[in-house]
Design goal:
- The chain is of the alpha/beta class.
- It folds into two domains: 15-139 and 294-307, Rossmann fold (3-Layer(aba) Sandwich); 141-289, Rossmann fold, CATH 3.40.50.1370.
- It is built from twelve helices and nine strands.
- The strands form two sheets. Strands 7-6-5-8-9 form a five-stranded parallel β-sheet, sandwiched between helices. It has a four-stranded parallel β-sheet with strand order 2-1-3-4.
- α1 (20-37) packs across α5, α5 crosses α6 and α5 crosses α12 (289-307).
- The chain is globular and about 55 Å long.
Length: 313
Amino acid sequence: MDNTYRFDQKHLLGLADYSAQDIQYVLDQAVSFREILNRPVPKVPTLRDKTIVNLFYENSTRTRLSFELAQRRMGADVVNFSAGTSSTKKGESLKDTIRNISSMKIDMVVVRHESPGVPHFLTQCVDAAILNAGDGAHEHPTQALLDLFTIQQVHGSLEGCKVAIIGDIMHSRVVRSNIIGLKKLGAEVVLCGPKTLIPKFITEMGVTVSYDLDECLAWCDVAMALRIQLERQGKGTEFFPSLREYHEKFGIKAKHLEAYPQFKIMHPGPINRGVEMESMVADNERAVILDQVTNGVAVRMAILYLLSGGTRI
């Protein structure tokens, strides 16, 4: 990275707003935080004077725990907000909620919401740094950053890396952020899944579409399976005959590991074993799924640090 480069982002609303240099800088900083996680006492006091609110309007396990662990390991004061037990149940608007929280003198807000654009809206309501933890089917930038970091670990470089993303492309916010980040850093991307789950005009993002799983697995360095998001598809909407048939045509199986020995296996979670992949595939030594989880803490530590005003550690 050029020594004259300066990271001047105030928020993380999506990777569409970040340059290739911005993204690579976050990944470079994450290397140091990944090393910190391997220490006997994996903590640094870099955010001990900061107050962070985790504002989650959607259910979450991995993302919320990962953010909270990252925040606490950096010494931040953490406030967790759950819509299910808040005044939103009494009719309070999002704008009033965030303004009331902001009046408590906070520094950063991590937000997950079912509606696209909410993180951007919050930047107009408060002065705090806003981090998007997933907004509708729009973007999930920290998931993409941890995926990029993991690919960089296993492949050495994102430049020229061949990545196949397989599954529910239409309803995934992860895939949009990943495409943006992967393309900016020079990777090749092929999308694979049922025709009914591949959005029209997706090739305008610079990707290729295939409906042949074997073709994709024979080509790629990394195979990233996506969860079938039944909760976003709506009742009465049938995108394929059955989960069993989906698995037969697009599920990664042990036979694929034998036939194509070159690719690593990724999944943003949660995994539906027997749907996106067989159990023995998820547990295979070529799967880096648990590495993604660990890397998620390091990457979130890095972006929290940078958006709090840090430069280098």
